[in-house]
Write a structure and sequence with these properties.
Elements: H1 23-45, H2 47-56, H3 62-92, H4 95-112, H5 121-143, H6 155-186, H7 191-216, H8 228-236, H9 238-244, H10 247-276, H11 282-310, H12 312-332, H13 336-364, H14 370-398, H15 403-422, H16 426-438
Helix pairs in contact: 1-2, 1-6, 1-7, 2-7, 3-5, 3-8, 3-14, 4-5, 4-7, 5-14, 6-7, 6-11, 6-13, 9-10, 10-13, 10-14, 10-15, 11-12, 11-13, 12-13, 12-15, 14-15
């Protein structure tokens, strides 16, 4: 009876990679996660976010609102554009070209952040909008390569390799940023003098680390091309197709949207919670980010193997339960020790849940339409990125600064995801995939 609710355990003794796929190609694919994670860690989560609010916007109250509103706008743009870009890449075998274009755009826009100084509000927001939009396109595009690399029974393992590499890249970028900041501050320099160098360093690391992906990652096999109007017309019905032909894939997308809303809150607002509720200083907050990244890398790499062994659905369920425990610990934490424990658990769950979700999309997506279905996954993730932090911010505003209540409500996203996951029939979803592929 248990297997009627959760996918059956999968055989981990079979080779993880599809025939003809070498280790170098998989490594080059995972290196893209390594490359782009420095952007999210340094620009979105720590250095530039604090720099923009505190220096560029001079600490004004509207600075945080301008920052979050610009990010939300970039996610909304990707929600509209990415399905069409994904379908076009499917039809025109343009995955490598789309990946290269988005990478170049993100690298250049990140480098342009180095030109943002005190008072450059509009210019800084434009560069932020462009860099994050290009980053999101690349994140979705590289994910669409996964079904062409890993066997269906090894999606969890291979996806976990990428996520664990990614957290390593984020820690490297953050470590270099801290080294630059520490050296500059010891020399008496202010943030306006050294943050531009950190942005250039982050952009350069992204460009260099992404090179293996363009050297050795091959274009996945795709269907024949079609006209752009035909592609857009087909894509307009993609969501309706999931209702009719892929109901379990549709339910998976809804599940991912729910729990990703909670994850986005943790990623974007954990430093705020640590400082406002727990009284952490900047050094403690930076160490907190390192702990979360280390645990996330361990979770993404190790849990991928467990996921392939016990089944994707059961593994994701355990992870969502872990998120609920983390929220309870953080809300109830009165001591620093308990909060550190919650942060470690958050990192562990972050790597596992993100890896598990991407692997499940790869398993249930039809083999001849990977980019289109991964674009729908991107749509769900970007919707979550808009809804999660916005909900948290509105609750803090309505309650006049009650971060604990806002985090408690955030736990509802994980609970909703767990409920939707329980209603997902993974075996039926695989059968729908096979029927669509063979047809």
């Amino acid at each position: 009876m248990a297997h009627s609710r959760f996918a059956a355990p999968e055989n981990t003794h079979q080779p993880a990679l599809l025939p003809g796929v070498g280790r170098r190609e998989v490594w080059s694919w995972a290196m893209y996660d390594f490359a782009n994670s420095g952007y999210t860690t340094v620009v979105l989560s720590t250095v530039f976010s604090a720099y923009f609010v505190g220096v560029v916007a001079a600490g004004q109250a509207w600075g945080t609102l301008a920052w979050t509103a610009t990010l939300s706008l970039s996610y909304l743009i990707i929600m509209v554009l990415m399905p069409g870009l994904g379908a076009r890449a499917d039809a025109r075998t343009g995955h490598r070209r789309l990946l290269f274009t988005s990478t170049l755009g993100c690298v250049l826009a990140t480098a342009l952040l180095a030109t943002v100084g005190p008072g450059d509000i509009a210019w800084g927001l434009v560069c932020l909008l462009l860099s994050n939009a290009f980053y999101c396109v690349g994140e979705s595009t590289v994910a669409s390569f996964l079904p062409g690399l890993a066997r269906p029974e090894a999606m969890g393992r291979v996806s976990g390799w990428g996520w664990s590499f990614g957290y390593g890249g984020g820690m490297l970028a953050l470590g270099l940023a801290l080294w630059v900041a520490g050296s500059a501050e010891s020399a008496g320099l202010l943030a306006a003098a050294y943050v531009p160098w950190i942005m250039l360093l982050t952009a350069g690391l992204f460009a260099v680390a992404a090179l293996p992906s363009f050297l050795w990652l091959r274009e996945p096999r795709q269907t024949a091309g079609a006209t752009v109007p035909a592609l857009l017309a087909q894509l307009r019905h993609a969501w309706d197709e999931t209702r009719r032909d892929f109901p379990d894939f549709r339910r998976l997308l809804m599940c991912i949207a729910c729990y990703q809303a909670g994850i986005t809150v943790v990623i974007t607002l954990s430093a705020v919670y640590a400082t406002q509720v727990m009284g952490f200083d900047m050094r403690q907050t930076m160490l907190l980010v390192f702990l979360v990244n280390i645990m996330a890398a361990v979770g993404a790499f190790g849990f991928g193997y467990l996921q392939d062994h016990i089944g994707h659905k059961r593994a994701l369920a355990l992870t969502l339960i872990g998120w609920l425990i983390m929220v309870a610990l953080a809300v109830a934490a009165q001591s620093v020790l308990v909060f550190w424990l919650a942060a470690g658990l958050a990192g562990l769950c972050m790597g596992t849940s993100q890896s598990a979700g991407r692997a499940m999309v790869g398993v249930l997506a039809p083999a001849h339409r990977p980019a289109e279905f991964f674009a729908l996954w991107t749509f769900a993730v970007q919707l979550a990125a808009v809804v999660g932090p916005l909900t948290y911010g509105l609750l803090v505003w309505f309650t006049q600064g009650n971060h604990r209540l806002a985090l408690l409500v955030t736990g509802g996203f994980f609970l909703a995801g767990l409920w939707l996951l329980a209603r997902l029939n993974f075996v039926r979803g695989q059968q729908a995939r096979d029927a669509a592929t063979s047809g």
